[in-house]
Specification:
By secondary structure, the protein is α/β, with parallel strands linked by helices. The chain has two domains: about 180 residues, Rossmann fold; about 120 residues, Rossmann fold (3-Layer(aba) Sandwich), CATH 3.40.50. Helices cover about 30% and strands about 25% of the residues. Strands 9-8-7-10-6-1-4-5-11 form a nine-stranded mixed β-sheet, sandwiched between helices. The structure holds flavin-adenine dinucleotide (FAD). Flavin-adenine dinucleotide binds next to helix 6, helix 7, strand 15 and helix 9.
Amino acid sequence: MSDVLVVAEGRNGELREVSFELLTAGRELADAAGGELHVAVITGPVAEYAAELNREGVDAIHTVDAGEEFNHDVYVQAIEGLYDAVEPGYVLAPNSVNGLDYAPAVATALDLAIVTDVVDLELGDALVATREMYGGKVETTVETPTDRTLVTIRGGEWPPAEGEGSATIEAADVEIDEDAISSTVTGYEEVAGGDVDIADADVLVSVGRGIEEEDNLELIFELAEAMDATVSSSRPIVDNGWLPPNRQVGQSGKVVTPEVYIAIGISGAVQHVAGMKGAENIVAINTDPNAPIMDIADYAIHDDLFDVVPALTAKFAD
Ligand SMILES: Cc1cc2nc3c(=O)[nH]c(=O)nc-3n(C[C@H](O)[C@H](O)[C@H](O)COP(=O)(O)OP(=O)(O)OC[C@H]3O[C@@H](n4cnc5c(N)ncnc54)[C@H](O)[C@@H]3O)c2cc1C
């Protein structure tokens, strides 16, 4: 029997979606291990965060009120302290910039096995973690025979936990040694175009190289406006400087899980699909019936985008 400790993540006073996905992954693992699901809430408005994270399946939430924003040294100390107090078997963290900052240090300090960027977990005689390699072309499995393991999970791979929970919420009895804090976060700045977070959008109208010219993007923005959707893109559009980097979907862009993802003139390279395969409904508009995106699309429109997009815009604007 092993408990699971999940480390939630917030930024600028808001919990990130991966925190709720971690609850689902954590609950599944705790069920398989016959243990409880504990959640660590470190820094930020911890009481608000804890209330939001109190979802079905969570047994206990531990808050560490130690500053507004992420700090490496605070996280490492807090997780170490919580590990000693809760004595979980497994620790789950997001495979985010922050998660990858503190997870190796925590694993080293606590002498835990560590597996990063995990997309699936199964517990039998050993913990079997699935990872993708070579841009998603190959899947590998990593077995850790011990329950003293820290796993970072990729966002968008587990559905977010829902339903109201009845977890105990308490301030953790964890001391943070201020003298051991060697760095300070002085501020947080979104990259250019930071007004939009494509990861939050319910409907994404995503454009690829098939659009041919920057001026043609107007067609895409018109469709997005008519559908009350957000515009995202494949990488070449960002590389061309036609849209800012925060609009890019994919392995080196953002992972998105909208209700509807409309891929317009996008071929569906593995690096792109890695960022959008979790969308509930995928619509592809492409002149090539053999484009890989057509295989994963729920609705594949084999036609010219310059005909289909204006027709869709007119329909939605009605
Ligand atoms: C390390 C690495 C990381 C990467 N990370 C990312 C990433 O995060 N995100 C990402 O997107 N890519 C990423 N890439 C690039 C990726 O490999 C592809 O090159 C890229 O996704 C292709 O973008 P695209 O589909 O827009 O263009 P293309 O592959 O050129 O596809 C254009 C599509 O438009 C269709 N088309 C053309 N004209 C029309 C028309 N008139 N009407 C309808 N359809 C039309 C074509 O049939 C074609 O399928 C990465 C690559 C590497 C090596």
